[in-house]
Amino acid sequence: MKKSNYRIIFMGTPEFAVPCLKALIESGEDVVAVVTQPDKPKGRGKHLTPPPVKELALRCDIPVLQPEKIKDELFINALKDLCPDAIAVVAYGKILPKAVLDIPPKGCINVHASLLPKYRGAAPINRAIINGEKETGITTMLMDEGMDTGDMLLTERVEIKDDDTAAGLRDRLKYIGAELLIKTIKGIESGTVKPIKQDDSQATYAPMLKKEDGRIDWTLKAEEIRNLIRGLNPWPGAHTRWEGKQIKIFKSSEFGVRSSELRNEEPGTVINVSADGICVATGKGSLLITELQPENKNRMSATEFIRGYKIAKNQIFD
């Protein structure tokens, strides 16, 4: 296949970025190098494990750079020596300094998993689900020194389904992002894609997730708690405490019983235990827990949990 006139450096790290790199390679773009995070120790043995993007690059005989520090002068000079026309950035994991942003004449093109200017930041997929959004998408943009503030290039809208988790939605978006990246680069090459300024007055933010973000506040509405559970599945997991130990909740449904039947139960109170799951009172309505993970145990269905643990009506989740 005929190569593009553009020389492209790809910067990305996790599985989310893999389809974008694969699409660039298959489209015939001239990917001259891949930049990714250093290998990290994983598993019980703490064996050094390469990032998914590195694994694909090595299989395709593409040179890989893994700088410890993104501002390292030797690294920046190595990028300059590659003479890229553009740098494609997908979930690389570090903020690029101006010295890197200024290298490619056609700019650094970022694939961001939201409809900018909404949900700028590190966790747009999670935050959109947590906040009960019905729509999200992918935006490609020209990067600047701000946090996802650069001019937009192309946008693709995506419905957030009622049963979407962060993991499931991420899996859908990574392939949409790959398609949009190719459309964007081809459009820049042909001159049909033009930058559009973001409306900063409409900006919202999606800060990085922390473990404590998963703590369930049972005084919230059942819908809000269910959105939190979906948005934090699989990490860090929405969690509560029962009998002094942490319980992570991964699946649930709203309104295990009708609000009119709740009477005056304190939020967090178990109001029913059945083959369907564990029904818990919330600030408004009730939540049926169907999949959970006790502390130091594997994930299991609520039915399995009920068989193995003595949970009963009127007990309370903290």
Short description:
With 318 residues, the chain is α/β, with parallel strands linked by helices. The protein is built from eight helices and 15 strands. The strands form three sheets. A seven-stranded mixed sheet has the order 5-2-1-6-7-8-9.
Q: What is the second-level CATH architecture of the largest domain?
A: 3-Layer(aba) Sandwich
Radius of gyration: 23 Å
The order of strands across the largest sheet is 5-2-1-6-7-8-9
Shape: elongated
Largest sheet: 7 strands, mixed
Write the H/E string, N to C. Answer: EHEEEHEHEHEHEEHHEEEEEEH
Name the beta content range. Answer: 25-35%
What distance separates the N and C termini?
Answer: 60 Å
Number of domains as seen in the coordinates: 2
What's the total count of β strands? Answer: 15
Task: Figure out the total of helices.
Answer: 8
CATH class placement of the largest domain? Alpha Beta
| Helical residues, percent | 10-25%
Describe what this molecule looks like in 3D:
The protein has 318 residues and is α/β, with parallel strands linked by helices. The chain has 8 helices and 15 strands. A hairpin with a 4-residue loop joins β3 and β4 (47-49). The longest helix is centred in the middle third of the chain and has 25 residues, at 166-190. The mean pLDDT is 95.
List the helices and strands and how they pair.
Layout: E1 7-12, H1 18-26, E2 30-35, E3 40-42, E4 47-49, H2 52-59, E5 64-65, H3 73-81, E6 86-90, H4 98-101, E7 108-112, H5 124-130, E8 135-142, E9 152-159, H6 166-190, H7 222-231, E10 238-242, E11 245-254, E12 270-274, E13 277-281, E14 286-294, E15 300-301, H8 302-308
Helix pairs in contact: 1-6, 5-7
